[in-house]
């Protein structure tokens, strides 16, 4: 048995998404109120639940919309491929900072969602982690493009190198999550410049080694 999709008024959906982006950006998942979202969107609370089913589903839809916006805005195909891993981190940070200035609510929603994912309801965690995997797939592609501009040592497996670099990205993300658990004042990429510097240091070590030869 299939569930019929509820027909949605595009204008009301746009207003709900705008209101939800702002509410979840400002207050986070737990403190954002659907009553306030409904009032800001000029719709009934019942309509929000008719469209989305639950606050959890509305939140996931909001993060999906923010993810789609940042992926459409920061399109890797629109930028020149950097020649080294450190430049990849620097460029990525620059693009995300620019996105945060032009889309503050969307950026804050993503910072909250990915930084505090382990504090969300279990079902929401699974869906948010799936969205994170989508963004990681884009990063993996960009890393491969950078490696294609470099000369790897003979005998090195390209996929193994990419896996190692992705492991470092996961470490950086884990450090960011640990920071978010203790700090709730991250409003932009400027507030986590330390993690950018850490990522640059890690990538520099990966690319150039850590022992004198």
TrEMBL record:
Residues 33-52 bind DNA. Coiled coil: none annotated. The keyword Transcription regulation applies. PANTHER family: HTH-TYPE TRANSCRIPTIONAL REGULATOR BETI, HTH-TYPE TRANSCRIPTIONAL REGULATOR RUTR. Gene3D superfamilies: Homeodomain-like (1.10.10.60), Tetracycline Repressor, domain 2 (1.10.357.10). This is TetR/AcrR family transcriptional regulator. It comes from the Bacteria. It holds the Pfam family TetR_N. GO terms for molecular function: DNA-binding transcription factor activity; transcription cis-regulatory region binding. Keywords: DNA-binding, Transcription, Transcription regulation. Residues 10-70 form the HTH tetR-type domain.
